[in-house]
């Protein structure tokens, strides 16, 4: 029985470490997305000369937003299952709504300022949600490991 508990705690610790890495990657990627979107109007003319013209392409941006959305939802839902505090999910949901709205409804050709503002604010919200999720997981994780039935 003690062996079963030790194995369970080891798996729990490994899974927790993976979740923290996912949140850190998500926060970094979301922040970089926000910086990219805020700076893009200023550096758009320089990117092709540096061989980085793909960074200004809508396809790249939309693929990045889809990746960020999947990572955020997976990581934050897992965190919510652990700490049961919905604030990180609400912030991420708001941020993802801004990102998707900015990327699909306001492209850089028709409304570049609105596009840049929406995706920058959305990326910052998603990054904040990942950071909040990390903090909540850290605060509640030590005292409340997930039960075996939730896995």
Structure notes:
- The chain is an all-alpha fold and 151 residues long.
- It has one domain (15-150).
- Helix content is 77%, strand content 0%.
- It has four helices and no strands.
- α2 (58-83) runs antiparallel to α3 (87-104).
- The longest helix is centred in the first third of the chain and has 42 residues, at 2-43.
- The chain is elongated, with a radius of gyration of 18 Å.
- The two termini are 19 Å apart.
- The relative contact order is 0.17.
- The mean pLDDT is 75.
| Structural class by sheet pairing and helices | mainly alpha
Relative strand content:
under 5%
- Share of helical residues: over 70%
Runs with pLDDT <50, length 5+? none
Mean pLDDT: 75
* Gyration radius from CA atoms, angstroms: 18 Å
The helix/strand order is: HHHH
**N-to-C CA distance:** 19 Å
Helices, strands, pairings?
Blueprint: H1 2-43, H2 58-83, H3 87-104, H4 112-141
Give the gist of this structure:
With 151 residues, the chain is mainly α.
Describe the structure using short key phrases.
151 residues; mainly alpha; 4 helices
């Amino acid at each position: 029985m003690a062996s079963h508990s030790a194995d369970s705690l080891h798996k729990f610790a490994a899974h927790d470490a993976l979740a923290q890495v996912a949140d850190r990657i998500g926060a970094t990627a979301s922040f970089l997305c926000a910086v990219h979107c805020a700076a893009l109007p200023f550096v758009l003319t320089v990117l092709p000369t540096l061989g980085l013209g793909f960074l200004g392409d809508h396809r790249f941006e939309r693929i990045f937003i889809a990746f960020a959305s999947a990572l955020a939802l997976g990581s934050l839902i897992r965190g919510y299952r652990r700490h049961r505090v919905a604030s990180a999910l609400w912030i991420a949901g708001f941020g993802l709504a801004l990102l998707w709205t900015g990327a699909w409804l306001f492209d850089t050709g028709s409304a570049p300022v609105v596009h840049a503002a929406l995706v920058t604010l959305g990326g910052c919200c998603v990054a904040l949600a990942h950071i909040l999720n990390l903090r909540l997981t850290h605060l509640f994780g030590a005292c409340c490991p997930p039960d075996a039935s939730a896995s």
